[in-house]
Amino acid sequence: MLNIVLFGPPGAGKGTQSEKLIAKYQLVHLSTGDILRSEIGRGTKLGLEAKKLMDQGVLVPDEVVIGMIESKVDANKNAKGFIFDGFPRTTAQAEALDKLLKTKETGISMMLALEVDNEELIKRLLNRGKDSGRADDQNRGVIQKRITEYNNKTAPLKDYYMKQNKFSGIKGVGSVEEIFTSLAETIDKSHK
Length: 192
Ligand code: AMP
Description:
It contains nine helices and five strands, in the order βαβαααβαβαααβα. By secondary structure, it is α/β, with parallel strands linked by helices. The chain has helices at about 15-25, 30-40, 45-55, 60-75, 90-105, 120-130, 140-155, 155-165, 175-190, and strands at about 5, 30, 80-85, 110-115, 165-170. Bound molecules: adenosine monophosphate.
């Protein structure tokens, strides 16, 4: 299997690049942010609770997202592989993911990290907020909080995957095509 963790701060381009990667490599896209937004859209209890945290720009509890990922992995037994987008975001989530994949006799193939500076991120998120209507993309304070959460809780995962020799940093600035080419080259080099 080809199991990719697509990593990077909010606004790095994970969603855009995931769409292109799933088309090229026939992978199943698992975005915890998308799953949470669909729960909110359906007005479930989980969605209502998550919304309060998401609107503040803070992470939802580990157990919640880990449970969601477990059921989605189970529901896609014949997948060629997965792109994990916006997950894991904490060390506890990364450990839970390793454990889960091990029970399926597979594991994470690589972490691809899109690297974009803060100023560019804020600019992109505010722009996206105008089109997407996402409440958490429309407020500078919430955007800043999400970046702070990323730096405190998520950025340490770089070391987690580096220790396993699975980390690759990719320049996340340029055209969508250029960035996609870098990602695909990195995948093809390590996954023949
Ligand atoms: P995203 O669409 O990935 O930017 O996520 C939007 C929001 O959903 C985040 O700011 C968090 O509140 C929540 N969220 C998404 N994925 C996770 C995760 N893996 N762990 C905790 N919270 C998450």
